[in-house]
Every structure is written in structure tokens, then in C-alpha cells.
Amino acid sequence: xxxxxxxxxxxxxxxxxxxxxxxxxxxxxxxxxxxxxxxxxxxxxxxxxxxxxxxxxxxxxxxxxxxxxxxxxxxxxxxxxxxxxxxxxxxxxxxxxxxxxxxxxxxxxxxxxxxxxxxxxxxxxxxxxxxxxxxxxxxxxxxxxxxxxxxxxxxxxxxxxxxxxxxxxxxxxxxxxxxxxxxxxxxxxxxxxxxxxxxxxxxxxxxx
Length: 208
Known about the structure:
By secondary structure, the protein is mainly alpha-helical. It has 2 domains: 78 residues, Endonuclease Iii, domain 2; 105 residues, Orthogonal Bundle (Endonuclease III, domain 1), CATH 1.10.340. Helix content is 57%, strand content 0%. It has 12 helices and no strands. The longest helix is centred in the first third of the chain and has 15 residues. The chain is globular and about 50 Å long. The two termini are 14 Å apart. 33% of the residues are buried.
């Protein structure tokens, strides 16, 4: 997989800035950083599972403890660690189950993103959510951070919802249908717009 800055980033920024004054301002505030791809499908999905339903700060803390305990978070290292050792890193019992199941899928060859390159986003989401512990949000993080898909709108993401409320609606959270309508002007670069809204809440880029 490609690593680093997506090839479409500069074009996306130009078009978003022209289409939306809020995006124009946010893009100007963070000129030297961008979404950055990772090269490991298991790592991206595991990091997303750790981040489910907790803050970025809490997820970073748990992930750091996992790295300290495992050396590297791979399917091999997850499977050799005991449930108690994984729980000691701050994972819930449910997330330990999810990580272990993901590791077994990875070991069996189930996670082969090279097979999905020609699939549309929804087809990949449908495939991923058949794996226990991977819901739509986790699959969308995979589309964003591993496949670097440009037009993902993770409507269940707390940061996206907060960012839209802060910058577009005086701090009031919008109903789902209104979020979709507001984001229409970001197409086909909704991933990029989402990323800049995350930056407005936390200047340090999150990575999955």
C-alpha cells in the first residue's frame, strides 16, 4: 500500500477551500500536515478497535501500553499474549475478544486488501463488518487511513460531529440527515474535510 501523503491532497485542498469558507480557513491553519497512510492492514484495524467509543487521548494511552507490552502490535504478538496481559493494557474484555478474533482472521489470510482495490467503499465496508468487532466506524477508519479513500464521511465519529457543530452551527449538533446535506459541498473530498475538522479539535494528527 502507498504510504504518506495522498496524491490527491493538494487538489482536494484547493477545491474544498474554493467551495467552503470554513474549509478555506481550516486548511490555511494547518498547512504542513496531512492525512498519512499506513502500510499494515492489521495495525490499522487493531488501532481502530482500540479507539472505539473512547477519546483519542485515552486510545493513545492504551495503544502505548500495548506497544510496551507486545513490542509491536501484530497478529502474532496479540495471539501469544494472555487475556489478562491484554486487559492490563487497558482494553475491555470485549475489545480483547475483538483483537484476538481480528488476529485469527489475519493469520488465516482473510485480510487481503489488495483484493479490494477495485471495490467501492460500501462493498469494502460490507466485507469488513462481517469480522467480529468491526462495525461501520472501524471500517471507515480503514478506508481513510489504510486505503486512503478520498470521500469517506464517518457519520458516527464523535470528532466529526463535534467539529461540524463547532464551525457550522454554533456548537449545536445537527441531525444525521443535515450532516449529510452540509457535507455535500465537500464531495468528492469528504475524507479531507473530515480530517481538517479533526485537526480543529486536536492539532496532533490521529493515526490508525
